[in-house]
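Dear Dr. K.,

Following up on our conversation at the group meeting, I've run the structure prediction for Adenine phosphoribosyltransferase from Kineothrix alysoides. I'm pasting the input sequence below exactly as I used it, so you can double-check it against your construct before we proceed with anything downstream. Let me know if the numbering doesn't match what you have in your notebook.
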Amino acid sequence: MKQLEEYVRSIPDFPEEGIIFRDVTSVLQDADGLQLAVDTMQDKVKDLEFDVVVGPESRGFIFGTPIAYNLKKPFVLIRKKGKLPCETVSIDYELEYGTATIEMHKDSIKPGQKILIVDDLIATGGTTEAMIRLIESLGGEVVGIVVMIELAGLKGRERLKDYRLESAICYEGK
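The predicted structure tokens came back this morning:
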């Protein structure tokens, strides 16, 4: 059986020279790779008690929904601004070159609920930190974060040091 890392396509010098892009689409395009990714991520948090799975647009949806389904938990979306139809709460956060806004339905998290965040990748941790602040603004408690890929060289783990962070694959570089 192949290791999960073997399903990830590495593309050198994208989006710029010196960067190795870790492409998750190659995992998604292979049934065994997709199953291994979901199973591995789910296994990383098997000891964690939580009420709700939260995933950001769009790859957090891909990995978070099957984990929520398998564990019979609700799944809550975090989306880019203007994509949700009901009353929302939002947060602005800094990107490398500018700012972004994410939002979620105001009634999607109840005070005191324990939350697991699921995403495809963690780099600097800025988007994840914004998601945490958004969830906590609704009274949720983030008890864990699980990602398929961690780019350790970008130090997202340090930024999120107060939260449990699990990764299926950890690459040392950027």
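Two things stood out to me. The longest helix spans residues 31-44. The chain has one domain: 48-171.

Best regards,
J.T.
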